[in-house]
Design brief:
The structure holds 2 protein chains of 2 kinds. Chain A folds into 3 domains: 55 residues, no CATH class; 62 residues, no CATH class; 124 residues, no CATH class. Chain A is 24% helix and 29% strand. Chain A has a 4-stranded antiparallel β-sheet, with no helix packed on it. Chain A has a 4-stranded antiparallel β-sheet with strand order 7-8-10-11, with helices on one face. By secondary structure, chain A is of the alpha+beta class. The mean pLDDT of chain A is 76. By secondary structure, chain B is mainly α. Chain B is built from 8 helices and 3 strands. In chain B, a hairpin with a 5-residue loop joins strand 1 and strand 2. The N and C termini of chain B lie far apart (44 Å). The N terminus of chain B is likely disordered. The chains are: A alpha+beta, B mainly alpha. Chain A: This is F-box domain-containing protein. Chain A: InterPro entries: F-box-like_dom_sf (IPR036047), F-box_dom (IPR001810). Chain A: Pfam families: F-box. Chain B: Pfam families: Skp1 (PF01466), Skp1_POZ (PF03931).
Chain lengths: 258, 174
């Protein structure tokens, strides 16, 4: 009897991955979620074939969030009677975490401290950002962008992009401070965007920040100095994520595809 | 999947092939039935498995092979009709009854069948056994699934991993 049991145990572990996948494909979302916990092997089989993803996807637009006048007061607007109620009060977050929404992508929000989903009221903290080198911080201001595509992966990424060239006062201007405002000729003449462009990226897959290099595909938009002349203001620019590529609207109306 | 038409297909006597299990038992079966296996189909089309030669199946023991062939023989006529578009409701109900009865078996036999079905690439049998295992999983918690399917008790490490996954996918139980 014991021998028989032992044999069965070996058998279930010997089943080919494709056979297990064949079984899992026939399960609904709840049973799939339970099966995902059964063993590491099963979890791997499921993830390799993206079996879970169709069930994580929202199948319709539930509503839209609107931030009135950038007052950080979010309201959720939806057609009546559709689906669960979603609130613009992010009161499930630890206090202060909702202070500023930095970006959003496919239903997830990025704030200073965390990434959260207002529909499920779940959140995950972000580890501290890697510091920006002092020389760079005088010249470029960073923006953060959230990238999440549930059709590709259940994981999200946060990009820190030093895309804004900081406005510098000219000698003779009111409050001109050479230590802060003096232009560095070498940086001014350097190509923009640089190649490689080394960006800090957080991925929820590892839960860590990492450096990633991006290489420019094509000619630079100009020099840093050209960008400065074209548009001196440094608001955060919008970005859109589509089909594996992040499009960032930069100064001088050029769009970087990452 | 149509049964291969061999040259003597019209003279009434069905062509036979011999399959040899891992423990050296010989099974003589109609080529049309054995051809439900994608793996065997090419060999049989090439004229293999006839006469004194058999097709060796080193991964399938005789108990499993006899069960597999029982399925193939039952399903071969319907498959020969190109998925049986003109099968009567009675024929279909009979096949369904046979299928339900067929997978009402010991777990170890079921697992051996799964492996044989994948080895031999018998599409209908693959679906049938997969559906059976899926039915065994439905409505159960991860621990119950492990027990039902005969996984060994989780090590403390595996238990911790399961708990972590439960947190991540807890919504499924809400």
């Amino acid at each position: 009897m014991l021998q028989q049991q032992q044999d069965d145990e070996d058998l279930v572990r010997l089943l080919p991955d494709d056979a297990v996948a064949d079984v899992l494909r026939r399960l609904g979302p709840c049973d799939l979620a339970a099966s995902r916990c059964v063993s590491k092997t099963w979890c791997g089989i499921m993830d390799a074939r993206h079996l879970m993803l169709p069930h994580l996807l929202p199948h319709e637009v539930g509503g839209i969030f609107i931030d009135f006048n950038n007052l950080h007061s979010w309201e959720f607007f939806a057609r009546p009677t559709t689906g669960p109620e979603i609130s613009g009060e992010f009161d499930f977050l630890p206090s202060g975490a909702e202070s500023e929404i930095l970006d959003y992508c496919n239903g997830l929000f990025l704030s200073d401290d965390c990434v959260f989903n207002p529909a499920t009221r779940r959140w995950t903290p972000l580890p501290p950002r890697p510091p920006q080198p002092a020389s760079e911080s005088l010249y470029f201001s960073q923006s953060e962008y959230l990238v999440f595509d549930p059709t590709v992966s259940p994981h999200f990424e946060v990009f820190i992009i030093p895309s804004r060239i900081i406005y510098k006062k000219k000698p003779g201007d009111y409050c001109y401070r050479p230590s802060r405002d003096k232009l560095d000729p070498e940086t001014e003449q350097s190509e923009w965007p640089p190649s490689p462009w080394i960006l800090h990226v957080f991925t929820s897959r590892t839960g860590q920040w990492e450096e990633r290099s991006f290489f420019r595909d094509g000619e630079p938009a100009g020099t840093v100095n050209d960008m400065r002349k074209a548009y001196p203001w440094t608001h955060k620019r919008y970005a859109a994520y589509s089909q594996g590529e992040l499009y960032v609207h930069c100064q001088a109306d050029f769009t970087a595809r990452i | 999947m149509a049964a291969p038409e061999s040259g003597d297909g019209n003279n009434g006597a069905a062509r036979m092939v011999t399959l040899i299990s891992s423990d050296n038992t010989r099974f003589e079966v109609e080529a049309a039935a054995a051809s439900l296996s994608q793996t065997l189909q090419l060999t049989i089309l090439d004229g293999g498995g006839g006469g004194g030669d058999g097709i060796p199946l080193p991964n399938v023991d005789s108990a499993t092979l006899s069960k597999v062939l029982e399925y193939c023989i039952k399903h071969a006529p319907a498959a020969a009709n190109g998925g049986a578009p003109n099968a009567t409701a009675v024929d279909r109900a009979e096949l369904e009854r046979f299928d339900n009865e067929f997978v009402n078996i010991d777990q170890s036999v079921l697992y051996s069948l799964i492996m044989a079905a994948h080895n031999l690439e018998i599409e209908g049998l693959q679906s049938l056994v997969a559906k059976k295992v899926a039915d065994m999983i439905k409505g159960k918690s991860p621990m119950e699934i492990r027990r039902t399917l005969g996984f060994p008790d989780p090590t403390p490490e595996e238990q911790a991993e399961m708990n972590a996954h439960m947190l991540e996918y807890g919504w499924a139980y809400e």
